[in-house]
Amino acid sequence: MIFKPSKQVIREGNSVINYQYMKSNVDMLQIIQLGLSILDAWGNLPDFYSPFSYVWEFNFRDFDINRDRYASDSIELLKRQGINFEKNKEKGIDSKNFAKKFWDYGLVFNCYGLKSIT
C-alpha cells in the first residue's frame, strides 16, 4: 500500500474515505497479476467435465520493479509465491490488450449474468 490511512481514519470506518484510499493506491500502481474464479450458483468451480477444478491467473508485463512504485512487503510476498518479475516483463500479458479483450467479450457490466467480481 502506498497511501495508508491513519489508525483514526480506520477506526471511523468511513466507507467513502476507505474507497478513496483504495482507489488512490490502485491508480498509482501497475497491475502485476489478476486471478479469476468463476463459480456456479452453488459455489462450485467449473470442472469442464474433468476430475479437476479451474481458476485462472494472469501475469502482466506492465510492472517494472526498477521503475514503478510498489509496497516492499507486497513485492516480497509475490517473490516468495514464485512471481518472476523479469519473466513477466518478457512473457507477460499487455494489460491494455487484456482489458480490451475482457471488454470485447462482454465480461464487464454483467453481460452474462455475473453476480460479483472481487
From TrEMBL:
Cellular component annotations (GO), alphabetically ordered: CCR4-NOT complex
One Gene Ontology molecular-function label: poly(A)-specific ribonuclease activity
Protein name according to UniProt: Uncharacterized protein
Source species of the chain: Gossypium harknessii
